[in-house]
Amino acid sequence: RYYHSARAAGHSIPASEHSTITSWGVECEVDAMRNMLLQYPHGLVACVSDSFDVFKACRDYWGDELKSLIKGRISGDTWGRLVVRPDSGDPTETCVQIVTILCEQFKEDVVTTKTGHKLLPAYIRVIQGDGVDYESIPKILGALKDAGFAADNMVFGSGGALLQKLNRDTFKCAFKCSEITVNGQTREVFKDPITDKGKASKRGRLTVQLAADTSGSDEDRYKPRQDENGVPGGEGFLHYSADGNYVTVASGRGDPTKDLLVEVFRDGILLKDWTLEEVRKKADIPNGPFSGRSSELHH
User: Fold this and answer.
1) Among 72, 165, 187, 176, which Cα is nearest to 124's?
2) pTM of the model
3) Which of 29, 102, 145, 204 is the most buried (most CB within 10 A)?
4) Could you tell me which of 189, 201, 209 has the C-alpha nearest to residue 253?
5) Which among 215, 95, 72, 75 is positioned nearest to 144, based on CA atoms?
6) Residues 94-133: tens digit of each pLDDT
7) Residue 289: enclosing H or E segment and its boundaries?
8) How far from 240 is each of 105, 169, 174, 237, CA to CA, in Å?
9) What pLDDT, in 10s, does the model give residues 244-253?
10) Sign (positive/negative) of CA torsion 204, 210, 215, 217?
């Protein structure tokens, strides 16, 4: 539209992201995955699979409960492929484990290449997009080769690593859906990949408060799940900052009158119209780049 082109400059395939899966809840993750297959019954479709337990997803969901839907994507004149997407953990170890599981679950259609490596059937593949750069790709492919799997089982995607690899993970900062209202009923939304505890997101309606103004016991402090047998999403609702001065209160247990955050957008309407200079001043630190030396830097 803005460049007056008759066609789009770039294209994609139908692909889920975490909130479109996690909004269904832990118990209904398989239903969210089934929905992807049913909504896009032909051609390529990609689905993020590590929201809670990527190994269970590959073994029990893709490789069992949804198996017939996946196999049915290639039938007669129709062709389709599911692309399974892990998105956390050590890329090399995770990819090898996932391909191993999928090759076992779909073993009746796995073939051996002329180089003697196992190759998944054409209706399913794996895409690795997390932690991908020019150094990690050879490691992943080398590990797959050593484990007896063909390179064609994988495709790769890369974002910030194509540049200087300074991205949201540099400061462990990401924005995630935490609550959704479906048919008038609210439910908590979160992700908690079993392969990376650091990617667990906060759940439910949130407030950010001064710790001094917030009461709570040790039992209320957030505790991440320690292993695959733990409670998905962890336990407790008080997430304290590193210095202990602030606390994010999750699961709607906070006091909105003490919330330090303010609404900026609601339903597409701009509620706070701050200038760039105001934002810089708010974000500055003592003797920072926008303090007394700011005019010098501007020149």
Assistant:
1) 72
2) 0.82
3) 102
4) 209
5) 95
6) 999 999 999 999 999 999 999 999 999 999 999 999 989 9
7) none
8) 42, 19, 17, 10
9) 999 999 999 9
10) positive
